[in-house]
Amino acid sequence: MKKYLSVILLFFGISLAAQKAQNPVIFADVPDLSIIRIGSDYFMSSTTMHMSPGVPIMKSKDLINWKIINYASNTLGNTDELNLDNDKNNYGRGSWASNIRFHNNTFYVTTFAQTTGKTYIYTTKDIEKGPWKEISFSPAYHDHSILFDDDASVYMVYGNGKLFIKELKSDLSGIKENGLNQVLIENASSPAGNAIMLGAEGSQLYKIKGKYYLFNIVWPKNGMRTVLIHRADKITGPWEGKIGLQDLGVAQGGLIDTPDGKWFSYLFRDYGGVGRIPYFVPVKWEDGWPVLGENNKVPQYLDLPESKGLIPGIVNSDDFNRKKGDNDLPLVWQWNHNPDNSFWSVKERKGYLRLKTASITNTFTQAKNTLTQRTFGPECSGITLLEVFKMKEGDFAGLSLLQKDFGLVGIKAENGSKRIVMVETIDGISKEIQSVPFTGNKIYFKAACNFKDKADLGRFYYSLDGKEWIGIGNVIKLPYTLPHFMGYRFGLFNYAEKDLGGYVDFDYFHLDNKN
């Protein structure tokens, strides 16, 4: 009898656990997250660096199921790097480490960009519909966080290792003359010891029940990414610090509470080719300190509703059918760098995305108008149907997995004929792995990813009828590299190696959470 009772209890335990949220909360590249709660709604900003539009804004009712609702930035500017002109690019740069706040019925989203050397503050009354107002000033304050204090002062904390604080003008248009301007913490990394590989950064500043709390990440040598927490009774200090969490390398983020009084810390983890993925840990308060995790560990399950999956809120399929009033592109899509909007359309041919060749290059990563979505884990695949009858000599179009070490499959128009081509890139060097003659005008492509346990493997396929899939080229590695500083992206591409004027039509892009 006891044996059967144990089995029943185990079954119910597994069933109840399956109904709870699990870590990672989002198995996709959503790094540098910053979250606020307004009533029962949560809003999150994140980093997408060289993508356009940038600084994605997401909304949730339960902290687990998120939907992209807007972007704070359409473009950082008009430069060769941002436009992929003159062999220049913006990979790994662009907008970094955003911070979201709400004050006096206004939403504030801040970021900074090494590309332009500026700090950006975007404001809106309506976070879902906009419009957004942009304020920018120099220099670019690294990994900053802002705080609207009770006395109407506005502070910005920033830096790496040595952290600084400056007071902003009331309209946030720049630094306040004769305002607070000092070193906040001389060596913020010190709670983690003296042997430090990455100094304390990623600041997120809060005021809770009259006390100031500052969250940072630090990375000790021969150790792992670690959460640091400092607190003070006054904004100017003195500040006392301690290690907040040291498990699985889950670090960098802050605090959020729920309407029913629960607290969580939102953080992220480097997870190979899929990117930097969000984890949440429960928080308890002891002696005025937030205590993270369960027995100092990141739990698998959370006392939050279970995830319904990333489709359609973070990533989604697209048949390119647009009704009156629809956006030309749903918010799940981002361009690789600034697009040239004269070279693409979803209106010229109803139900299709038309990509015209927008640049002449021999390098895929310099090709303009590559349209991207996140890959996601633990497994995923993307399928597209491509019509190629208007390609010109030297054109190359297809489906990619975009990072520095990219892979792709596509149609190449060359020497008066067409070929199905698979390309692999290792350590930045690209090589054509397999080529198959092609005489038709329609071709199906598939890219599949396996991120389970950081396997980081990709595979490409083609099909002539959409039913029988034929593998092409190698199984490729999908390594996360700092030059791009982003998880792998599905990419629909078309570029010219000789002359502009050709185009291709993508009938659809379909996602699946299977390999």
Automatic annotation (TrEMBL):
Keywords: Glycosidase, Hydrolase, Signal
Residue numbers marked as site, Important for catalytic activity, responsible for pKa modulation of the active site Glu and correct orientation of both the proton donor and substrate: 143
InterPro entries: ConA-like_dom_sf (IPR013320), GH43_C2 (IPR041542), Glyco_hydro_43 (IPR006710), Glyco_hydro_beta-prop_sf (IPR023296), Glycosyl_Hydrlase_43 (IPR051795)
Source species, domain of life: Bacteria
Catalytic site positions: 32, 201
Signal sequence, renumbered to the chain: 1-20
GO molecular function, one term: hydrolase activity, hydrolyzing O-glycosyl compounds
Presence of the UniProt keyword Signal in the record: yes
CDD domains linked to this entry: GH43_FsAxh1-like
Domain Beta-xylosidase C-terminal Concanavalin A-like: 318-510
Record Pfam families: GH43_C2, Glyco_hydro_43
Keyword Hydrolase set for record: yes
Biological process, per Gene Ontology: carbohydrate metabolic process
Stated family: Belongs to the glycosyl hydrolase 43 family.
Protein's UniProt name: Glycosyl hydrolase 43 family protein
Species assigned in the record: Flavobacterium panici
Source organism phylogeny: Bacteria, Pseudomonadati, Bacteroidota, Flavobacteriia, Flavobacteriales
